[in-house]
């Protein structure tokens, strides 16, 4: 039996991890300022020590970790080699991985991104990857199909946490861009009928206020998980998150990076902040 065939769908694995550990994803964002605050050098060795310390500290607490790919890319091939190791060590630690790569391109090129982040045997393959639908939701088809074939998942940007996102995502009147993306994800998740979550998730920031309601996004019916950045450093709290998502709150995976990472480099400092965030989300 191939590895792909033996892996349960991502949505089912995430639902089970959230049920066992709670709805927290810890972002691994090795910003230069954080490396410095931890007494580490802004190079591949500093990146490695930082990232592995985070996985070691929270790998048994969080449902998922989310390495921010840009912060590895800025170190070139040495940084990407570290990312490969982080993904492998995380898998060994039993925590799900979401590569925050925000990829999106015309279909033929998308197939190559899909091979890299979701392909069986790829050194960069994670349990899920973030995708941008700016070239049209259907341009993501290679990744949607690869995710289904390999038991992996995707999180498609719908309502991002940054204030500038509204200038595109809120446009379109009754058929806003965000609502269109939400409906397309819902249609895609029909292939996962019977699973606790579909494997096609959305990114909706915990900072978007009443936009979910105002734009008429039916996140509960969408069927997939919701990755909600914006906790901590961007100002959102567990209470804000519950108010923002309403009936869809049980499918929300809250994600926080800088707020938790600022607790390092000590293991206890990182765990204390992760546990505090988890308690806030409960
Ligand atoms: O896809 C994401 O994770 C993402 C989407 C979004 O709308 N907003 C957002 O902040 N993110 C990412 O989530 C992380 C947030 O980091 P903190 O603000 O430090 O918690 C960064 O890696 C962002 O790139």
UniProtKB/TrEMBL annotation:
Gene3D superfamilies: Aldolase class I. Residues 269-282 have a biased composition (Basic and acidic residues). Its EC number is 4.1.1.23. Residues 259-282 are annotated as: Disordered. Keywords: Decarboxylase, Lyase, Pyrimidine biosynthesis. InterPro entries: Aldolase_TIM, OMPdecase_AS, OMPdecase_type-2, OMPdeCOase_dom, RibuloseP-bd_barrel. It catalyses: orotidine 5'-phosphate + H(+) = UMP + CO2. Pathway: Pyrimidine metabolism; UMP biosynthesis via de novo pathway; UMP from orotate: step 2/2. It is an enzyme of class 4 (lyase). It holds the Pfam family OMPdecase. The keyword Transmembrane helix does not apply. SMART domains: OMPdecase (SM00934). The active site is at 102 (proton donor). GO terms for molecular function: orotidine-5'-phosphate decarboxylase activity. Residues 23-273 form the Orotidine 5'-phosphate decarboxylase domain. GO terms for biological process: 'de novo' pyrimidine nucleobase biosynthetic process; 'de novo' UMP biosynthetic process. Belongs to the OMP decarboxylase family. Type 2 subfamily. PANTHER family: OROTIDINE 5'-PHOSPHATE DECARBOXYLASE. This is Orotidine 5'-phosphate decarboxylase. It comes from Sinomonas humi. The gene is pyrF.
């Amino acid at each position: 039996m191939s590895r792909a065939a033996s892996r349960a769908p991502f949505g089912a694995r995430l639902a089970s991890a959230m049920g066992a550990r709670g709805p927290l994803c810890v972002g691994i964002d090795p910003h230069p300022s954080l490396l410095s605050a931890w007494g580490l050098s802004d190079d591949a060795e500093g990146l490695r020590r930082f990232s592995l310390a985070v996985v070691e500290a929270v790998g048994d607490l969080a449902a998922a970790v989310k390495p921010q790919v840009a912060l590895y890319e800025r170190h070139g091939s040495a940084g990407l080699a570290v990312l490969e190791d982080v993904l492998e060590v995380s898998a060994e630690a039993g925590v799900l991985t979401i590569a925050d790569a925000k990829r999106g391109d015309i279909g033929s090129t998308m197939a190559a991104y899909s091979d890299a982040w979701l392909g069986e045997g790829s050194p960069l393959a994670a349990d899920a990857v973030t995708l941008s639908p700016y070239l049209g939701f259907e341009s993501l088809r290679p990744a949607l199909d690869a995710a289904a074939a390999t038991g992996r998942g995707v999180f498609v940007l719908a309502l991002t946490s940054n204030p500038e996102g509204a200038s595109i995502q809120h446009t379109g009147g009754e058929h806003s861009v965000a609502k269109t993306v939400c409906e397309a994800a819902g249609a895609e998740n029909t292939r996962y009928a019977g699973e606790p979550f579909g494997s096609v998730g959305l990114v909706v920031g915990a900072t978007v206020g009443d936009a979910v309601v105002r734009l008429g996004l039916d996140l509960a019916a969408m069927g997939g998980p919701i990755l909600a950045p914006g906790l901590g450093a961007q100002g959102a709290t567990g209470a804000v998150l519950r108010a923002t998502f309403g009936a869809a709150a049980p499918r929300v995976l809250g994600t926080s990076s800088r707020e938790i990472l600022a607790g390092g480099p000590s293991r206890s400092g990182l765990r204390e902040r992760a546990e505090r965030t988890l308690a806030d989300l409960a």
